[in-house]
Write a structure and sequence with these properties.
Helix content is 43%, strand content 13%. By secondary structure, the protein is an alpha/beta fold. The chain has a 6-stranded parallel beta sheet with strand order 3-2-1-4-5-6, with helices on both faces. Strand 9 (327-331), helix 13 (346-356) and strand 10 form a beta-alpha-beta unit. The structure holds nicotinamide-adenine-dinucleotide (NAD) and uridine-5'-diphosphate-xylopyranose.
Length: 482
Amino acid sequence: MVKICCIGAGYVGGPTMAVIAFKCPSVEVAVVDISVPRITAWNSDKLPIYEPGLDEVVKKCRGTNLFFSNEIEKHVAAADIVFVSVNTPTKTSGLGAGKAADLTYWESAARMIADVSKSSKIVVEKSTVPVKTAEAIEKILTHNSKGIEFHVLSNPEFLAEGTAITDLFNPDRVLIGGREENAGGLKAIQTLKDIYAQWVPQERIICTNLWSAELSKLAANAFLAQRISSVNSISALCEATGANVTQVSSAVGKDSRIGSKFLNASVGFGGSCFQKDILNLVYICECNGLPEVANYWKQVIKINDYQKNRFVNRLVSSMFNTISGKKIAILGFSFKKDTGDTRETPAIDVCKGLLNDKAQLVIYDPQVPETQIFKDLSTPKFDWDQLGSTIQITEDAVKQSVKVVHNAYEATKDSHAICILTEWDEFKSLDYQKIYNNMPKPAYMFDGRNVVDVAKLRQIGFIVYSIGKPLDPWLKDMPAIA
Ligand code: NAD
Ligand code: UDX
């Protein structure tokens, strides 16, 4: 029986390993983590992350060939293949702060693997890492190996949150990078390929050299984020000209060379990956003497910040340039639907912008707990984060000006305006007539996700702003926004 150990039981390690265990009954999978609460939750009925379909997969395999444990060293020592799926956040201090990936967790995991191993192992980079990380990892492993053989592979993960299980069941591709130039490397590639081949068609398993695999992951995220910034930049032009961004992106996306996916204009992209990975790419370009390339990708993040600021400015200017003391309902706080994850969610910057203008916020999200919302809004931005909003809101101000409630009707009652910041399905089918009746007039809707039926809401009486859609006559008369 092949034994796999995955270090890091997070959004990637947990679902990825659960699917490997589910699809490969002859493989034993142990997912280990330093966090005791996380592992306890993985072993309970309430998993630590919300992901459609995940509960079923975990329940089917847990205790059979899937185990969650804090006994890291024991499981690493016993494994044939060790996946490392620890977090690789942006460095917050020192050289490269604000751009470079922080590889502290990765390095400590690699040193521990070298320390505890008594048999040869394949070590797989599952985390997203800078190009050439595998070389550094190889050095750490071989210099501490006591004669044991290690083969390092890069196997970046392309799942998206909210659709992780379907993405893992049916991936567009599985990428395996390794030392193609030597027999040991080729054998390691084949071993990992054999695992995925148990459910992924051969032609979708791509094998490359290590550096191509590492760079492909950063490039894929940069391309995806760039599409969103492209359509978001066009959304601003749509509002200025009377074009409709949904019609424009649909017409553009019909070109088979462009394709229709990932062209939804929004209040901005969020999530733990896009910004972090682009910053990392920018840093790598700068380190390689490519400032023009670095600036090109930096612009993707700048447009994203512009889009969030534009949304706040539009709201404030539409409401007579003051929202001081006004109650604003925030529908949705997670960075996208079907996840409770709030990392880099645009809702944080938008809410901070509104709080800075002294609004009273009532927030509802079906998956994000109150404690997380308070934490996110009170956490200061890092000094280096000059690209994004630099607004800092004190914990006291957040406590006085923010309330978290349990449904959309409670949030919107008596509110002067509604902001939709996450595209949860339930926001499409709310009784907007009832909501309108319970709001002071004029009643505003600011849809940052193009969720509502604009014509219908205008008919009800709402003043509606929807990203990239022709402006409400009311909004046209308001002062121009930067
Ligand atoms: P996460 O923060 O949810 O999980 C990482 C886990 O690693 C944490 O539970 C942490 O306690 C654990 N950990 C850290 N150091 C450890 C150590 N030395 N020993 C044991 N456990 C340790 O992060 P994530 O979202 O799962 O992301 C992991 C990696 O995958 C990152 O590099 C990320 O860029 C990449 N990635 C993430 C996604 C995504 O959608 N979240 C998608 C593709 C790739
Ligand atoms: C992303 C990549 O899609 C995935 O391949 C990678 O492994 C991890 O990073 P994730 O961040 O989980 O996945 O979600 P994704 O669906 O990419 O959405 C990211 C952000 O972009 C969300 O805030 C989403 O709302 C936004 N988005 C997405 C848009 O604003 N418009 C779109 O058309 C698509």
